[in-house]
Specification:
The structure is a homodimer. The first copy, chain A, is of the alpha+beta class. The first copy, chain A, has 2 domains: 154 residues, 60s Ribosomal Protein L30, Chain: A, CATH 3.30.1330.10; 158 residues, Alpha-Beta Complex (Phosphoribosyl-aminoimidazole Synthetase, Chain A, domain 2), CATH 3.90.650. Helix content of chain A is 35%, strand content 23%. Chain A contains 11 helices and 14 strands. In chain A, the strands form 3 sheets. Chain A has a 7-stranded mixed β-sheet. A 4-stranded mixed β-sheet of chain A has the order 2-7-5-6. In chain A, α5 runs parallel beside α6. The longest helix of chain A is centred in the middle third of the chain and has 18 residues. The interface between A and B is large, with 112 and 111 residues. β2 of chain A pairs antiparallel with β1 of chain B.
């Protein structure tokens, strides 16, 4: 030892060293305390025990303040980087078919996927309310890891903040993500042309309805589950048969209606959809009728809206149907030249109505 | 027009089109409502008015769900991508010398910079409490833009969530960031060697003290301001004279003590620092004595801890002093072989004490 200490100090020292050695990176508490956000020992133990051990990959385990990723490897997979972020504040944390952890992984994967990117790396930043049971956090982290594994992405860096009881509601998660976009793919809400065809991969409104029911505001028992799922493999399947997809977006908050309005405004076109073609489960339709909701505005977490040139529609549709996430795919509408910026619905009765952007809020904290 | 409508519908339609045309992307409300997180029209107006107009860059203005960045351009600047994230929950939102917006930009820039990366692109994801004055959000966004401009980074994508009153405290921000690490640079907490020298760029504890005083818990008036500043130009200056820096980290939450403990544990070395060499303002020392705090654990938002081989120490020190963010740089300690994992402080009285990792929480919501 290259320092001089008196005997008592040395004893303290050796106890301390022993203590450091014994540190197992285990959380000592059953509930989150402010110390878990301190930057100190409790936080380090929490990170080791919950996140590093769950997410388990060599980049994260370095525990640097940033992940380091080889750029040449990225460039071999495509020519552009896609970069996105989303915060997740869904309430409740667990709901039929999914939970905030899976949602935070799949949601960000889908924001990458709809650009045609192969999702590769995610971050995980949590804001915890003092008093949150550690077991809840552990379940959420496991769910994130399972979703990341299933999708083939790695969670490579993160952050943990704790706020006083009452300054946040249990747990918020932010995930940012990066992926690589294949050369030649150019998907944008600005690319849509009159004559294009609008396709969706399945039933609308399951996620929103599952959350509503999980909140117990309705005395209903149904088997409706969130459609939370990663869409990048479905997107890959589509791009194989049609690299020149015009626009693609997942219909989350604000639902199909919001995506179509964004498309119509960005590309300065009109869009006309047919109510009879839009797949909605009977139970979802029922909940909507009881509550005065419109399934077109209900949130989804695994629904892909694809706009392609008419001559590619059949090939894309049949490719989508060949994939489990697209087996219920169908054509729901078409793009028209005018009036630009407006979405119409042809109702089951043969009339037409305008489907405006969502004004006000249907269901807060849906994702 | 290529659709058939009756006269009344047509009138409604034209009014609607007129309405779409008139939409100026202006926030109509003085306070945040749940509708601003709906995914619909109010959210779009908020994003246009507050974020897109403030951050003002062509990548963000696309309003896709992800930013698209040219990989070849990135590869020209270095060989690795650095990727990081941090959530900011600081309370209060505005404090002497800085605010949550500038902090959210500089904090993430610094997490990139300490890997030797040139910071390039940031995301901005906000969680808003219902009832937050829109004016507050506007000020914060302007502050983020100013910080981004000053540092030469772009905010290229984002997300907005709103939660009920009481489910979050005013405003939380997450920024994720990417940057490019120059070829040949390898900075890591695992690289530290016995004999290395520890350098810091200036006074400790100003940020933590400024927050404390801003909270009004002390009836003190001082001119202490947060040291919030971007460190990437200082890092660049250091790397020019010494590309082989061993370790570098910014001393934020948990302060200098936490960074040094992380270094000691990661590299399995001991670290000895000298109290007399550590720059602390008299007022900060005074606040610490009154409150029983230790400046070694106080948060900073512009303090860089650099570990270099002894033979490089003088060159690095003089390079740091040549830069405004490093003018008060000094050597504060050295790395020893044993006992590994332990940090010692040589006090002003000539005794030695162990500087442990922070146990418990000094100041919650400091960043």
């Amino acid at each position: 030892m290259d320092i001089s200490l008196n005997k008592s100090t040395k004893n303290t020292l050796f106890q301390k060293i022993e203590q450091v050695r014994r540190r197992q990176g285990k959380v000592q508490d059953t509930h989150i305390t402010l110390a878990h956000g301190s930057g100190g020992k409790a936080m380090r133990d929490l990170i080791d025990d919950i996140f590093v051990s769950s997410f388990d990959n060599p980049i994260l385990s370095q525990l640097e303040d940033q992940a380091s990723l080889n750029l040449s490897n990225l460039l071999q997979q495509g020519d552009r980087l896609a970069f996105t972020t989303d915060s997740y504040v869904v309430d409740p944390l667990f709901f039929p078919g999914s939970d905030i952890g899976e949602l935070a992984v799949n949601g960000t994967i889908n924001d990458l996927a709809v650009s045609g990117a192969k999702p590769l790396y995610l971050t995980c930043s949590v804001i915890l309310e003092e008093g949150l049971p550690v077991e809840i956090l552990r379940r959420v982290a496991k769910s994130m890891k399972a979703a990341a594994n299933k999708a083939g992405v790695q969670i490579v860096t993160g952050d943990t903040k704790v706020v006083h009881r009452g300054a946040a509601d249990k747990l918020f998660i932010n995930t940012a993500g990066i992926g690589v976009i294949l050369a030649g793919v150019s998907i944008s809400a600005h690319n849509i042309q009159p004559g294009d065809v609008v396709i969706i991969n399945g039933e609308l409104g399951n996620h929103g309805t599952a959350i509503l029911i999980a909140r117990g505001e309705l005395a209903l028992e149904t088997d409706i589950e969130s459609d939370c799922q990663p869409l990048h493999n479905l997107v890959e399947t589509i791009l194989k048969v049609c690299p020149q997809v015009h626009a693609m977006r997942d219909a989350t908050r604000g639902g199909l209606a919001t995506v179509l309005n964004e498309f119509a405004l960005s590309s300065n076109v009109g869009i006309r959809i047919n109510e009879e073609s839009i797949p909605v489960r009977e139970e979802v339709q029922g909940v909507c009728e009881i509550l005065g909701l419109d399934p077109l505005y209900l949130a989804n977490e695994g629904k892909l809206v694809v706009v392609v040139a008419r001559e590619n529609a059949e090939a894309v549709l049949s490719a989508m149907k060949s994939h489990p996430a697209g087996k219920d795919a169908c054509i729901i509408g078409e793009v028209i030249a005018s009036p630009p910026g407006v979405v119409f619905l042809k109702t089951a009765f043969g009339t037409e109505r305008i489907v405006d952007m969502l004004v006000g809020e249907q269901l807060p904290r849906i994702c």
